[in-house]
Amino acid sequence: WLRRAGAPSGGANHRISARPLGAEVHSAREEKPASTVLPAGGAVVPMAWAGHLASVEVTLNGQGPFRFAIDTGAAGCLRIDEAVARKLGLPVVGEARVGDPSGRNMKTAEIVAVDSLAAGDARFAGLTATTGDFAGRLPGEKVDGILGFGLFSDCLLTLDFPALRMTLAQGSLPLDGTGIVPYRDERGIPSVTMRVAGVDVDTDVDAGAMGGFSLPESFAAKLPLAEPPRVVGHARTVSNEFDIKAAGLEGDVAVGPTTFAKPMVEFQPVFDVGNIGARVLRDFAVTFDPKNHRMRLSRSA
Question: Which of 13-27, 215-229, 245-259 has the lowest mean pLDDT?
Fold first, then answer.
């Protein structure tokens, strides 16, 4: 969970190692729904902004609606507010160690079972979710939980931020096509190779992060900058707090075939990977093809 100076915390990538009752530790990046059912023509779900987070209405076990934010930087299927889990009487099936990608200061959370989740005409069954305090994290906004990247493992997912709609469909992206970028998901979230002024950076595509182009602090000395980085805000994740610095880049950022000329770039001292956050993604329709590990950025007119 990240925030700018004076701003509230919002969604960012989680790392989770889960211990179901009576089982060995496993990683939540392996979690996906037991089944996914989509109409032949797919499902289109209206989105709304909750702070910097795009969100949709869902039902859980046939009850709701509840408002859930969409976070491509969250591994696994779901995060549910503790109060909602209690209200629905969701059974506790284990516990998880949760935190950010640094692995520092991990915390413990309960894992609950969810029989079904519906978003528009899309149906997901056989889910597990970690619980937490999500309802009070955005001033003037309320979300009941987070939809993680793993929920969409069997879908062609499009987050059209300018049009404020989420589309879930069958099919796949072409191997070669306009705006197509291959991605990796070793940690359960999409990661691409971003080229920053000629330097390759392993980078998470994180719709839950508030910022734009964020880089490890060590890259500041490797890049042509318009000025020395200065502190522009403070970040808070689920387990760490730190200052964020920023500077103008005297060069371009490239994400596959999509280029950004001389953007502002941010630097943080905790994570060893970069991050593309909501401030960049909100200008695009972003399609993820989890089966083939392809992503497409379509710039809005």
Answer: 13-27
Q: Tell me the torsion sign for CA atoms 40, 72, 225, 221.
A: negative
d(CA 113, CA 57): 19
pTM of the model: 0.86
Which two three-digit tokens encode residue 72?
């491509």
CB atoms within 10 A of CB 259: 11
**How many C-beta neighbours within 10 Å does residue 25 have?**
11
The answer to whether 214 and 293 are in contact (CB under 8 A) is no
Instruction: Specify the DSSP class assigned to residue 257.
Output: T
Cβ neighbors of 200 (< 8 A, separation 6 or more) are 193, 194
Average pLDDT, the chain: 85
Phi and psi, residue 282, nearest 5°: -65, -10
In the block, tokens 């076990």 appear at 61
Token pair in block for residue 194 = 């971003």
